[in-house]
Specification:
The protein is built from ten helices and 15 strands. The chain is an alpha/beta fold.
Length: 338
Amino acid sequence: MIIVMASRKQEDVDHVVQKIEEMGYKAHVILGVERTVIAAIGDEREKYRLTSLEALPHVERVFPILKPFKLAGREVRQEPSVVQCGPVKIGGGHFCVFAGPCSVESREQILETAAVVKAAGAQMLRGGAYKPRTSPYSFQGMEEEGLKLLQEAGQKYGLPVVTEVMTPEQVPLVEHYADMFQIGARNMQNYGLLKAVGKARKPVFLKRGMMSTINEFLMSAEYVMSEGNPNVVLCERGIRTFETETRNTLDIQAVPILRKYSHLPIVVDPCHASGAWDLVLPMARAAVAAGADGIMVEVHPHPEVAFSDGQQSLKPGTFEQLMREIRPLLDIMKMQLG
């Protein structure tokens, strides 16, 4: 249920929160520009007990949330959310470029890549220390040593770091080194992991599963948010279809659909969506034109010898070209870079 407050005084909000919790529900306060609402989340079978709160003088209205995603949906928050990661803002007119290698391979590699993407205009450094791979014989990442190198590179070049976490047990370690958790496509419905990052303090970069519907995607965001972490960024990274010419199929229409149903920022990953470096630039342009709040791009100084995903990684010069090409589109879309 949604409780729309007639008053924005803190003592009145606290009073309603107390009443909600006394009924056995979790209260999530959403401070909007024009109004304050409280989402009451809990047992759906008795939710209409909450309508009694309309008798309070500082409550304007109580009504049900119709969508299954309660906190991620626009019913509780009309204006777009802005997720802050260090000095970087994502969403609400702020376009963010996440760039870096698929995996951290060495100190020299990650430092060189960080320097390149920073100079070209990226605001966030991406890189994998833990790598979920289809084959158990493929490179699995440098683990904690990779986290240390990623943190070093980010701090040296002033780039907040996003990296993947694969299990609930890894959450404290990754949180220590990184500025943002990434939940990969294979873990989008790992509900124990979603709950674990939901209880953590760092923002969450949530990738859509390759065979997941938009509704399932938003329900995964709901798992994170229901544990108390509202700072979720959605990432469309391509879905599996019958097409064999590309690694996946970029569901570009997911961007306006997600915008219609959710207030959360939306990022597109054109590298995993296409699986081919020469398709990344046109897909990045399409993402900006569709209204995305950012793109995630794999960049490697020498992709021909990359330990993973070299075929879809951009060389430094191509990444610089991408950044030049999206700037006019950002102006048209009234988005600011950074």
